[in-house]
Amino acid sequence: MVAVDNLSLDVHEREGSGPGEFREIAAVCLGPSGNLHVFDRAQGRVTELSPEFEFISTRNIPPNINDNGGVVLGDGTVLINKASLSAERLGQLLHVVGSDGLVISSFGATGEPDIPHDLTGPRTVRWITDDGTGGVWVAHFEEYVVENWGLDGVLHRRLHNEEDWFRKPEESSSNRKPQVLDLVRDEAGRLRVIIRVPATQPRGRGEADPWAKDNLWDYVVQVINPTNGLIEGTGQFAGFAAGFLTPDTIFAYRWLESGQTILDVWRVRLRQGQKTR
């Protein structure tokens, strides 16, 4: 079973274009050194902060990446998710970025020829995590599909979870369809996913989920064994989750009346001896 606890930790965003300031945060992750990496899609850069949130460095990346579309891998490689406009990378959704801010290589083709006509649509969204062997695990947004890719563009594995409550968009009669929101690999090599699902008890407006007008969403955390694809833990909670900060923590945004953004952090615990499939 998965349990989620509020740590009551707030991190205030500093708005601006100077060192350690941001215009539009798209992704937050911990790098191999334990420092925080903040991806700013508006300014096209990723900023490295110390655990005390002190500015360390900034490097350029292509702008306008997808939500949670940036990760720093174990060897320091920066990988982003966005649909590409260039002819040679058309249909590729995952891009390795060099130290100069330019794309070195691209992979993760969808096989869907109409993707280029929907360059910001949900079918282009992928969640990325290091696989620990030089490649990445990648989760789709609108399907419960997880893939293992090498950075050379080779697809090694594809897991398709057949949960009854998760339906493809065309199979659901509701406008509120389950959506995968993030993916991370834990120290044991298991995969953890966050899934947004229609709420069992809809709440009032404006309190729990700033991205959903009517707060009609709950959030599910599941733990996947990548060897056999089985679900080893499940937990559901009400509120709002934007993604994983680490395998054991979830982060979420709140906006104050002053316009200031606050980052909340929650702890995720996998209780031993209990499995849900």
Keywords, separated by commas or semicolons:
disordered C terminus; 4-stranded antiparallel β-sheet; mainly beta; 277 residues
Q: Overall 3D geometry?
A: globular
| DSSP strand content | 35-45%
> In which range does the helix fraction lie?
under 10%
Radius of gyration: 18 Å
Strand order of the largest sheet: 1-20-19-18
Structural account:
The chain is an all-beta fold and 277 residues long. The protein has one domain (2-270): Neuraminidase (6 Propeller), CATH 2.120.10. Helices cover 0% and strands 45% of the residues. The chain has strands at residues 2-12, 25-30, 36-40, 45-49, 55-60, 70-72, 78-81, 94-97, 103-107, 126-130, 135-140, 145-150, 155-160, 179-185, 191-198, 217-224, 231-238, 243-246, 249-255, 261-270. The strands form 5 sheets. It has a 4-stranded antiparallel β-sheet, with no helix packed on it. The chain has a 4-stranded antiparallel β-sheet with strand order 2-3-4-5, with no helix packed on it. The protein is globular. The model is unreliable at 6-11, 113-117, 205-214 and 273-277 (pLDDT under 50).
